[in-house]
TrEMBL record:
Pfam families in the cross-refs: Fapy_DNA_glyco, H2TH
InterPro entries assigned to the protein according to its UniProt record, in alphabetical order: FPG_cat, FPG_N, H2TH_FPG, Ribosomal_uS13-like_H2TH, Znf_DNA_glyclase/AP_lyase
Domain of life, per lineage: Bacteria
Root EC class: lyase
Domain FPG-type span(s) in chain numbering: 215-247
Gene Ontology biological process terms in this record: base-excision repair
Keyword presence, Oxidoreductase: no
CDD domains: AcNei1_N (cd08970)
Xref: SUPFAM superfamilies: Glucocorticoid receptor-like (DNA-binding domain) (SSF57716), N-terminal domain of MutM-like DNA repair proteins (SSF81624), S13-like H2TH domain (SSF46946)
GO molecular function terms attached to this record: class I DNA-(apurinic or apyrimidinic site) endonuclease activity; damaged DNA binding; oxidized pyrimidine nucleobase lesion DNA N-glycosylase activity; zinc ion binding
Name of the protein this chain belongs to: DNA-(apurinic or apyrimidinic site) lyase
DNA sequence: CGACTATGGGCAG
DNA sequence: TGCCCCTAGTCGT
């Protein structure tokens, strides 16, 4: 499920497989017009937060956002016919990627790309992420820290599962407000470290020793102390937190 | 096999 | 606020 770590994983894999080539684009579903990309070389596949940007020579950037349900299927045999409903197939003679149920799949002119970048906060998985700016933005947020980290204009790429697990690792109550620079920096460093683990593993990893386990996300009890996990609505998503390990600041 | 849920997010209304 | 996106894993019947 597509939070930032999986978007970066897709970008890395597809960049390795497709960049520098002339992939064939098609839309079996018919809801995407591949015409502008016919015969165009793909320069790079870039991830920014939860967004994917496919940069082509002499064509608008292709913007993909998976939303909650979108996914890619990879076919080692590009001759395999796509299932119904494939919005976009990117294929070479060696591999095909089928995009299903994205919330966005569209050409994006340069000014749209600039606007998109400007709308996003630092992405902990990008090499060009500015940690000081990330700290500033989080510390400047006025609401609950648990809402701020889901705000893509504060930090880009964090979703609900990462929110739950990162705030647990930081010992931070999601309802806490106005985190200071030290707290914000600690949380950022956790995000940088753990999202990279998640990208490499292909799943949320919040305990490297037990990568399939979670501390509080979707759990009934805290995996560390056994206390009942508190769950409530925060930032239009269900928040999960341990009342013991993430005590309320007041 | 149907119901339910969910790791996003934009837009209509 | 509700709805959509040709989803998928899980659970109950």
């Amino acid at each position: 499920m597509p939070e930032g770590h999986l978007i970066h994983r897709y970008a890395r894999e597809q960049d390795a497989a497709l960049a520098g080539r002339v992939p064939a684009l098609s839309s079996p579903q018919g809801r995407f017009d591949p015409g502008p990309y016919a015969g165009r070389a793909l320069r790079t596949v870039e991830a920014y937060g939860k967004h994917l940007l496919y940069h082509f020579d002499d064509s608008p950037t292709l913007h993909v956002h998976l939303g909650m349900r979108g996914l890619f299927l990879r076919h080692a045999d590009p001759a395999v016919p796509p299932r119904g409903g494939v919005r976009l197939r990117l294929a070479t003679d060696a591999v095909a990627y089928d995009l299903i149920a994205p919330i966005r799949c569209e050409p994006l002119p340069d000014d749209g790309v600039r606007a998109l970048r400007a709308s996003l906060g630092p992405d902990p998985l990008r090499a060009d992420a500015d940690a000081a700016e990330a700290v500033r933005r989080l510390a400047a947020s006025s609401g609950a820290v648990g809402a701020a980290v889901l705000d893509q204009s504060v930090w880009a790429g964090i979703g609900n599962a990462w929110r739950a697990e990162l705030l647990f690792l930081a010992g931070l109550d999601p309802d806490a407000r106005r985190p200071g620079p030290e707290v914000a920096r600690r949380l950022w460093d956790l995000a940088v470290r753990y999202l990279a683990l998640g990208r490499d593993a292909g799943q949320v990893v919040s305990d490297p020793d037990l990568p399939d386990e979670r501390w509080v996300y979707k759990r009934e009890t805290c995996r560390r102390c056994g206390a009942p996990v508190r769950r409530w609505d925060l930032g239009a998503r269900t928040a999960y937190a341990c009342p013991v390990d993430q005590p309320a600041a007041n």
